[in-house]
Design a protein that fits this description.
The complex is a heterodimer of chains A (275) and B (300).
Chain A: H1 6-33, H2 37-43, H3 55-63, H4 66-97, H5 103-115, H6 119-131, H7 138-161, H8 166-174, H9 179-208, H10 211-216, H11 225-235, H12 240-266
Chain B: H1 2-40, E1 43-44, E2 52-53, H2 57-63, H3 66-104, H4 107-122, H5 125-136, H6 141-148, H7 163-187, H8 192-200, H9 205-216, H10 218-234, H11 237-242, H12 254-263, H13 268-299
Antiparallel strand pairs in B: 1-2
Helix pairs in contact in B: 1-13, 3-4, 3-7, 3-9, 3-10, 4-7, 7-10, 10-13, 12-13
The chains are: A mainly alpha (275), B mainly alpha (300).
Chain lengths: 275, 300
């Protein structure tokens, strides 16, 4: 039942207009990042570039030592994603399948933990990491985000696993598999798609984390991209094309990530979040 | 029977081993720091040496601090910008994409729009902040465009009467995608023939929105309302990168307020009191929401 009327095109036009508005800031960063300063001065930010100049990008790249920040972000987010999923799985296995006593109470505790603003943890974490010599170390931040992401993951996976088909577990037990084997040979393969989704979100969430890395990774050499961008905006770069280049480099890894994992990300993380 | 329950119980005990790493981690990363923070909030402490116990003095001072009250007030602005507006907008968008675009133009278009609207949501907030301060600064893109249209520009982030609205605008831009994606995946559960039947019965788009989309998405709306409101209560990075809470505290929020007392003025006890109060409000609100939700579920 396709309509042919004007409404179709009005609706489409409105949606396209809104999309253009939403993506305009990113498009503006792209077109101005590759302009020369003279081109920008002459024709303004809205014009397409008539010059092609990567020096803004190159300046910012070397100025903040971008490859190092990229590596820090990759290491932190990658480890937090993998370890966070593993920890979630272990916890959820005990609560959802093992049905440990107080499992319900633990979940409520975890839920409250998720709600605690990081501001309530940041100073003690700063103090504690300093006193045990783990301050300004990527590993301490990896441990912290592994636990924080796992809190959410446990909450989510526990409800998925509490509905796990009991016959499968029973069959494996009859075949003589112990709990450890059941976890890896029965539960893990079935849960793999869900775990992959979880890891994707843990990765991007950790990538974008700001407050804790800002406070706990004090030195330039350990900063993540997210923190480097935040510190930069404080300094305020006056040269508009360099600022555009900086903004573009800051969002570029995420853009690439988005293009690869777009389907997973836009399906949303609703598994178990909605009863 | 007795043997089975016996084996269950020992089984259950063994599962505690699987829970150990997670529990130890949770205690070290969340439990202990949170307890310390609450304890610190009853002291006067400069971050070194021994904290001295002052009882409720920090909280007493908090109640009389104008900056605290304006930070709470701005939190309400952020609830509007992060929970209320994005939820309404993305409900309309989700319904349009699901009920109209998907049927009139095809699923591909609907997915394409969803992906496009979603993109700002996953950018690092700090990078988005650099981008937006470049657009909103006095010599930035927005003012150039406005001047081109013959309008007066403004110092959007530097003028106390505009700054909060400018930051709110950026938050709406960031948040729309989050609720849109959740609503669209919720609509995935809905049988499209339901819309078709309503259409044949002569229900227009507004009726279908009101009588099908909204009731169908009730669980998702509850989840979104809860998560975005909590996110609004915690908002930090956008304020840090866009305005630093200024000008004249016109965009200060509790998170930024406690951050400055922790690390700039080094009144650690006071910072801890602010963040403890903020946590109490957040958890109270969260539990209220959950209570409401379960009660509704029981009624059904």
């Amino acid at each position: 039942m396709k309509k042919t009327g004007l409404t179709r095109w009005v609706v489409l036009g409105l949606l396209v207009g809104l999309l253009a508005l939403m993506l305009a800031p990113i498009a503006l960063a792209v077109i101005n990042a590759v302009k020369t300063a003279a081109d920008y001065a002459a024709r303004g930010p809205m014009a397409l570039p008539r010059s092609f100049d990567l020096s803004g990008l190159r300046d910012f790249w070397s100025h903040v030592n971008f490859p190092l920040k990229l590596w820090n972000s990759l290491l932190l987010s990658g480890c937090a994603a993998v370890f966070g999923v593993l920890l979630s799985l272990l916890n959820a296995y005990a609560i959802g399948i093992g049905r440990v006593r107080a499992g319900r109470g633990i979940l409520v505790l975890i839920l409250m933990g998720i709600m605690i603003p990081q501001e309530s943890l940041v100073y003690p974490l700063y103090y504690l990491t300093k006193s045990v010599g783990l301050f300004d170390s990527l590993w301490s931040v990896i441990i912290i985000f592994t636990v924080l992401q796992a809190a959410f993951g446990t909450y989510l996976l526990a409800s998925v696993l509490s509905e796990f088909p009991r016959e499968l577990l029973e069959a494996a037990r009859v075949d003589g598999a112990n709990r450890w084997q059941i976890l890896w040979q029965v539960v893990f393969p079935i849960l793999r798609p869900t775990l992959a989704v979880l890891a994707t979100f843990f990765f991007i969430w950790t990538w974008n984390e700001f407050l804790l890395p800002l406070v706990l990774l004090a030195s330039n050499d350990h900063q993540t991209i997210s923190v480097a961008m935040g510190v930069l905006s404080g300094q305020y770069v006056s040269d508009p094309t360099t600022t555009a280049a900086a903004a573009l480099l800051g969002i570029l890894p995420t853009l690439i990530f988005f293009l690869i994992f777009q389907r997973t990300l836009t399906r949303g993380i609703t598994v178990g979040a909605v009863k | 029977m007795a043997a089975i329950s016996q084996s269950r119980r020992t089984g259950s005990a063994v599962y505690w081993l699987y829970l150990m790493p997670g529990l130890i981690g949770f205690v070290l990363v969340v439990g202990l720091p949170f307890a310390m923070n609450v304890a610190i909030s009853f002291t006067k402490w400069r971050g070194i040496g021994m904290p001295s116990f002052v009882g409720l003095a920090n909280y007493d001072r908090l109640l009389g601090d104008a900056a605290f009250w304006s930070s709470m007030q701005h939190t309400l602005f952020f609830v509007v910008a992060m929970a209320v507006i994005p939820t309404i907008l993305s409900l309309i968008l989700a319904a349009t994409l699901f009920d109209y675009v998907a049927t009139q133009f095809g699923q591909g278009w609907s997915s394409f729009f969803r992906a496009g609207y979603y993109l700002p949501q996953i950018l690092p907030v700090s990078a988005a902040g650099v981008l937006w301060s470049w657009i909103l600064n006095p010599h930035g893109v927005l003012n150039l465009v406005l001047r081109g249209l013959g309008l007066e520009g403004s110092n959007w982030l530097g003028d106390p009467s505009y700054a909060i609205y400018a930051v709110m605008g950026v938050m709406v831009w960031i948040q729309i995608g989050y609720s849109l994606v959740v609503f669209m995946s919720g609509l995935g559960r809905v049988d499209p023939s339901l819309y078709e039947a309503a259409r044949l019965d002569g229900a227009g788009a507004p009726q279908r929105f009101w009588y099908i989309t909204i009731p169908m998405l009730r669980p998702e709306i509850a989840v979104i309302a809860l998560t975005t409101t909590i996110a609004a209560l915690k908002v930090f990075a956008p304020v840090f990168v866009l305005t630093n809470g200024g000008p004249d505290n016109s965009t200060i929020v509790p998170s930024y307020f406690s951050y400055t007392h922790f690390f700039a003025t080094v009144r650690v006890g006071y910072g801890a009191a602010i963040s403890t109060a903020q946590t109490a409000i957040t958890i109270l609100l969260g539990l209220m929401f959950l209570r409401l939700q379960t009660r509704k579920g029981d009624a059904r």
